[in-house]
Amino acid sequence: MPFPADSFDNIHSYSVLQHLSKDDARKAFGECGRVLHNDGVAVIQMANRVGVRNFQNQLRRRFRATKGFEVRYWSLKELREAFEDRVGPTTITVDCYFGLGWQWSDYPYMLGRHKVILIASEMLRRLSTVAPFMRHFADSVYCTAVKKTRE
Asked: What does the alpha-carbon distance between residue 38 and residue 146 come to, in Å, rounded to a whole number?
């Protein structure tokens, strides 16, 4: 990124970096770490490999290697390691279930059948805050990394 080191307090990315190759995404995470101030926060949404809908999408493409702008699916362990190595301590929380991009704020604009999916996704997301193991089955997760001073 064409910014000096330590330029930003916060970085947010939604539904972008999951389309890059894993190597390119790791480079982008490294750039996030470079341009964040100490104690700056990066919040980046990514696709979880074992989310129900994500698994279905991988099965449909027969688990072949990704190409072009296709979504890359990551394990939570891969995500944590990639962010902690390049930015800092990382927490992973649930964004949504049953696909990528189900946002509660979209409820008024959805068709009836989609509202049912959104309600189920939101209920599971809320459950994941008290039952953290549920995040392993989310389709979309947030990686929140805090840049710490390296010794």
From this structure: 8
Q: What is the pLDDT of residues 18-46, one digit of tens each?
A: 999 999 999 999 999 999 999 999 999 99
- Asked if residue 47 belongs to a domain, the reply is yes
Could you list the residue range(s) of the whole structural domain that residue 117 is in? 8-146
Distances (CA, A) of 91 to 97, 133, 144: 18, 13, 5
Would 3 be classed as within a structural domain? no
Q: Are 111 and 22 in contact (CB under 8 A)?
A: no
Residue 1 lies in a domain: no
**Is 112 within a domain?**
yes
Average pLDDT, the chain: 95
Q: Which two tokens stand for residue 33?
A: 């770490």
